[in-house]
Amino acid sequence: MSSCDDGSVTTPESPREAGSTATEVAPEPAHRVLRHRRGAVVAGVAGGVADHLGVPVLRVRVVFTLLCALGGAGVLAYGGLWVCCAMEPAGTEREVDDRDRIRGYGLVALGLALALVLSAVGDQVSGWVLGPLGIALVGAAVVWREADGDAAAAGRSGRRGRPRIVAGRGGVLRAVLGAVLVAGGITVFLVGRLNVGAVQFGLLAATATLVGVVVLTVPWWMRLARELTAERRERIRSEERAEIAAHLHDSVLQTLALIQRHTETGDDDAPAVREVRRLARRQERELREWLYGERERPAGPEDAGEGAPETSCFGAALRAAAGEVEDAFAVTVAPVVVGDAAHDARTAALVAAAREAMVNAAKHAGVDEISVYAEVEDSDALAVFVRDRGCGFDPEDVPADRHGLADSIRARVERHGGTVRLRTAPGDGTEVALTLPRAAPAPENTDRTTTSEVA
Amino acid sequence: MSTPTDDEPARVFIVDDHALFRRGVRAELEGPAASGVTVVGEAGSVGEAVAGIGHYRPDVVLLDVHMPEGGGAAVLARTRVDHPDVVFLALSVSDAAEDVISVIRAGARGYVTKTISGRDLADAVRRVRAGDPVFSPRLAGFVLDAFADRPGAAPPVDPEVDQLTRRERDVLRLLARGYAYKEIAAELVISIKTVETHVSSVLRKTQSSNRHELSRWATDRRLV
Fold it and tell me: Response regulatory domain: which residues (chain B) (predicted)?
């Protein structure tokens, strides 16, 4: 149905259409025939065509009615447009003139009568064919309309629930009526055309074919049903999750924030207070990760704290490292990541170095909070800054047996062609800046002077 | 704008639907750690907030982002016209870009998270009252990300307001790294006043840019 787009459908209706789309640079969105949702007499086709051509809807309906007289061509045209044209989006408001509608019903009746009468008085074959088949067509129209209406209703209310073919008892009644009309029309047609023995054979053949088709397509039906079920389950799950997230956000996260605030204003020297804050912070982080983190992550929230979580993004890995440091040292590490990159061995080394810098800050700076900022610069380099406002130190005074900065940070990053800059002074806080070129380094390109002008 | 002198304490109005949280903030702002700030009133809903702000005419409103009936953005929409001299500082438990960007675009002059310490909060209040935007590192990161020119970022529509100057970018980067204005000034060898000008200009661009629907961009970015 959707493959049948505007061009093939509308060109027979409007010869000017072909020219106008070719010449106009920016066609309006109204160039497709969209069936009217409101004010429709049968399926809103006439209204859509009228909008498309820019003529009153009554005129289009009259044309359809007159076409009905030509051997029922109007009915066929209407049916074809009905199948091929999409309905306008839900919620489209338009004014409906009741008189227009009543005239529409009148014209439908007139058109059907014309088709039947003219075919009856005309050629006998045409009469026999179109009479019963016309009834079948009306039945099909009733069923189709029901399906259309259900889609519209579901779109309007947006409620969740099982998708249904028909809605309500009236809907079932109409669908049954339509089916009876279709079956009746076809039966009358067959009975009129064929002798009784042939009808029996035909019915048998048709039934056998139907059964065969059903049997052949069983796997397909099964799969369709399964997919529908899975889709519905997934949708319900995500809706529920959003609800839970909103609730937790408003209750638990608020409380955790409150706990952290209260313990922060208290004295830091009480270990119990520090522990409470650490727990609150950890709980908040894990909850946040679970609520808003990557959906495809297979593991549950328990997994976030320990070990090396398998992540595919540099940013997530850095956040995980920050979380580990928070847990281990009861400090607040607030990573801000701008941009992101794929996580590989090189970025892993960068994250490990950044983690070491955070650990150093947590151990030695004597502060509650460490700032971590990571930026994936426009395709050139990854930069991570780990900063504290703590006591700072004199790099010259670091005892020779302390290898943290030299080995764990500098060596790690430089092995991958990156640079490390350290900025600190006693009483002035510490900032470790790590830069890693994004592409694997060619030896000449990693000249340290290019990136370390502030060192 | 009837800016009070810096000697007078900043008059603060707290809007949050959690009574416990209001009480906590109030206790902190009235405690010894936070000088130069007095709490004149509080509200637990959008309606109360609109009435209370009209009645007390506070200097600074501490505004919760998430509340029933439209949240902080609704309060901003209903009071900004009548009280253009009231400064709003958003205070939220959420770090989602969606919330941060939306409340800034609704007119808040700054954004801090609820885990901020009482001292820092009082400091932020004094700064927004003095007219400076308060950019948490996180907010600076979001803005940098939103205005980035990498593929996947929000594409620019109007180069005037949809692009940050190199200097503004530098300032934002340092903010995201946790630098204070004073430290940024020293780092970039410019005056504090110039830093404030840059940050104000970034705030203005964030509020007025229609770089392809900044708010939509923020919504799509579900990271916390």
Answer: 11-129
